[in-house]
From TrEMBL, chain A:
It comes from the Bacteria. Gene3D superfamilies: P-loop containing nucleotide triphosphate hydrolases. It holds the Pfam family DrrA1-3_C. The keyword Transport applies. InterPro entries: AAA+_ATPase (IPR003593), ABC_transporter-like_ATP-bd (IPR003439), DrrA1/2-like_C (IPR025302), P-loop_NTPase (IPR027417). This is ABC transporter ATP-binding protein. It comes from Aequitasia blattaphilus. Residues 2-232 form the ABC transporter domain. GO terms for molecular function: ATP binding. Keywords: ATP-binding, Nucleotide-binding, Transport. SMART domains: AAA.
From TrEMBL, chain B:
Residues 18-372 form the ABC-2 type transporter transmembrane domain. It is a multi-pass membrane protein. The chain crosses the membrane at residues 20-40, 180-204, 225-253, 265-286, 298-320, 356-374. Its main location: membrane. It is found in: Membrane. It comes from the Bacteria. This is ABC transporter permease. Keywords: Membrane, Transmembrane, Transmembrane helix. InterPro entries: ABC-2_transporter (IPR052902), ABC2_TM (IPR013525).
Length: 309, 382
């Protein structure tokens, strides 16, 4: 559905997009994950033909995307990172106005606006002006304005920024529902939990490049870490730490503030083996946690830095 | 299309800041002028032919007894108690003293080559100067005809007499030279330019690199040209109505006369509105300032040209005309103000036509710049 090939965008000497390649299939919820400044929004703006780029090729629905590709634009809905609504018009008027930029038939438009209001749960607020809405409701209005015309492709650029957890869950459920109704969705975020929760495929971006692409499981398999074991230990000697380091599959051990962190590559019975060792050495320990790697670990291992920097 | 026009109209009219600057503020200024200048037109419209006209006091000293000087003295006497009020002085010193004490606006020196001495620039001084200029022109014309075609002298005298009669009735003879009216003309010009406030806001809402709203509007399948045309149509309509409200208020409540040529007046106001809106749209699209910065700069953008057109200091346009006339030709507020003069006071068709052409060219030029500024669909940075 979307092909981005060798996309390069420079702002003077700064390379915002560095030969970016992406291929997004119909029916996907495709996540663009990366820290602030990694190039997600720039990629979206290039995709929408708002930004001039230096090099590369963008095709949507099999056709090259240009500023005057109005036939492509009619099937795209966009939810901007910043709320883009008119403060001086009511909720209904805002949705109706933006729907009117896509749909000229008055009857059809009325139906679509009602459906959008219902979908985002703003039917009771239709006469209110945006300034009277809470942050979460405002975000929902922002979404309604972007999806009211039922587009085939929806691009959502960090739609949950500064939203309370309850509204965030509502928005994420809405996105999955839109996908179930047939829309392909591109979802950018720097919240890895959201991306992990809703996206069928993910591209991790850093410094304008897609450094890894795949499903959550595929991405996790790309890294060395298969399991992380956290143990509250009372005291450990350097010798004991060295012996833990020598256990099968263990590749990294750290011990700070009486907390032992062991990183292991994938393997069976890792936790059992570690606990057996501690018991055999009469090392007292408290709480034990075993975690599978997160996307943050994937990002950390690939780029050497935290996702939320 | 109607859908877009309807909502654009709602968005613009509901924008209180822009509407304040483009409608309420000029109305307040008009009221303040009216109060500040006293009760100017309770029964008679300011600038109408029915109100009182005070002759300009001017001193006369006879320098020599030449035949040319006698002719000039006779000319001055014919204008006495009509346009000017003559006061004779025996010496130049006495006359200069009276001029310094502002008892008179100027001194005519009756001599072979008549001269005028004035103390400052102003409306009265300009009229005295025009009077001398008119005399010199006619005198030289008559002497030339007398020398080359003595048989046509009678016809020429008749033509000049008719001309004098014409100017007396329509321009100099009326009260239309009340200098206070200048402020109101400059105010209408300012009101036209204040459409810039509406233009700036609309421009910001339409450009992807200036607002998220602009970005959202830019990625829809509605052609950019359609969006621009809808914006211009609504903006010019709303602002033209704003200017008409101001003019209606000045004409019917404050009784200020703009002459009787309503069609031409509407045309001038319309072009003024187009210029004001276009300046705002172009500035809003090109400037990198924040929205508050743009609005703040727009105050300067509208007030400064209006200041140069006499909004705060009535004589400034004359000073500019004498020292740097090009500014009056390219300043839209000055051209607009001059158009109102032509309509309401001079009844100078040639000058009005020239100003209308200037105004038309300005409208087209600024509109074109604004259009080029907003028609972009792709940006280097957002």
């Amino acid at each position: 559905m979307i092909q981005i090939e060798n996309l390069v965008k420079r702002y003077g000497s700064l390379v915002a997009l560095d030969h970016l390649n992406l291929n997004i299939e119909e029916g996907e919820i495709f996540g663009l994950l990366g820290p602030n400044g990694s190039g997600k929004t720039t990629a979206i703006n290039c995709l929408l033909a708002l930004l001039r780029y230096d090099k590369g090729d963008i095709r949507i629905f099999g056709k090259p995307m240009k500023p005057n590709s109005y036939d492509i634009k009619k099937d795209i809905g966009v939810v901007m990172q910043n709320v883009a609504v008119f403060d001086l018009m009511s909720v209904y008027e805002n949705i109706d106005y933006f729907c009117g930029l896509y749909v000229t038939n008055k009857k059809k438009r009325k139906l679509l606006v009602e459906e959008a209001l219902e979908f985002v749960g703003l039917s009771d607020y239709r006469k209110m002006r945006p300034k009277k809405l809470s942050g979460g409701l405002l975000r929902r209005l922002n979404i309604a304005c972007g999806i009211v015309h039922k587009p085939k492709l929806i691009i959502m650029d960090e739609p949950t920024v500064a939203v309370d957890p309850q509204s965030r869950n509502k928005i994420l459920e809405g996105i999955m529902e839109l996908n179930r109704q047939g829309s392909t969705i591109i979802y950018t975020s720097h919240y890895m939990e959201e991306v992990e929760q809703i996206c069928s495929r993910i591209a991790i971006m850093d410094k304008g490049r897609a450094i890894a692409t795949g499903t959550t499981e595929e991405l996790k398999k790309m890294i060395k870490t298969g399991e992380i074991i956290l143990i509250d230990a009372i005291s450990l000697t350097p010798d004991e730490l060295a012996r833990i380091q020598e256990l099968p599959h263990v590749y990294d051990v750290s011990y700070t503030d009486h907390k032992l962190k062991i990183k292991l590559s994938s393997g069976k019975h890792n936790l059992v083996r570690v606990l057996e060792y501690l018991q055999s050495e009469d090392i007292y320990f408290g709480r034990v946690l075993s975690e599978l790697p997160t996307l943050n670990d994937v990002f950390l291992e690939i780029t050497g830095k935290e996702l939320r920097d | 299309m109607l859908h877009l026009i309807k909502y654009r109209f709602i968005q613009i009219v509901n924008d209180r800041t822009s509407m304040f600057w483009s409608l309420v503020w000029p109305l307040l200024l008009g009221t303040m002028f009216f109060v500040a200048f006293g009760r100017l037109g309770s029964n008679d419209a300011i600038g109408s032919a029915d109100s009182d006209w005070t002759e300009i006091p001017v001193g006369v000293i006879t320098v020599d007894d030449s035949r040319e000087g006698d002719t000039f003295a006779a000319f001055l006497e014919s204008a006495d108690e009509d346009i000017i009020a003559l006061q004779s002085y025996s010496t130049e010193k006495e006359a200069e003293k009276a001029l310094k004490e502002k008892e008179i606006s100027g001194i005519y020196k009756v001599q072979k080559e008549p001269e005028l001495i004035v103390g400052k620039s102003g409306m009265n001084e300009s009229i005295l100067s025009s009077l001398l200029e008119s005399y010199n022109k006619n005198y030289h014309l008559m002497t030339s005809i007398a020398a080359k075609h003595p048989e046509k002298i009678a016809t020429a005298m008749e033509e000049i007499a008719n001309y004098e009669s014409y100017t007396k009735e329509n321009s100099l003879g009326g009260s239309s030279l009340n200098p206070i009216i200048h402020y109101f003309f400059a105010l209408i010009a300012y009101s036209c330019l204040s459409g810039a406030f509406l233009g700036i806001k609309a421009s910001i809402d339409g450009q992807a690199n200036t607002s998220p709203l602009g970005a959202r509007r830019s990625i829809t399948p509605t052609h950019k040209l359609t969006l621009i045309l809808v914006d211009f149509f609504v903006l010019v309509t709303v602002h033209f109505i704003n200017v008409l409200i101001l003019c209606g208020y000045l004409r019917f409540i404050l009784k200020i006369d703009f002459g009787s040529e309503v069609g031409k007046l509407l045309m001038i106001l319309f072009m003024g509105s187009v210029i004001g809106i276009s300046i705002g749209v172009a500035f809003g699209a090109v400037s990198k300032l924040s929205i508050n910065g743009k609005m703040g700069f727009a105050v300067l953008l509208t007030l400064f040209p209006s200041f140069l057109a006499g909004l705060m200091f009535g004589n400034i346009q004359h000073i500019i005309e004498n020292n740097l006339p090009i500014v009056n030709r390219i300043n839209p507020a000055a051209v607009l103000s001059e158009c109102f003069y032509c309509l309401g006071i001079y009844t100078d068709a040639a000058k009005l036509s020239r100003n209308l052409i200037t105004l038309g060219l300005m409208s087209i030029l600024i509109l074109a710049i604004a259009f080029i500024a907003v028609r972009r669909e792709q940006y280097d940075s957002i």
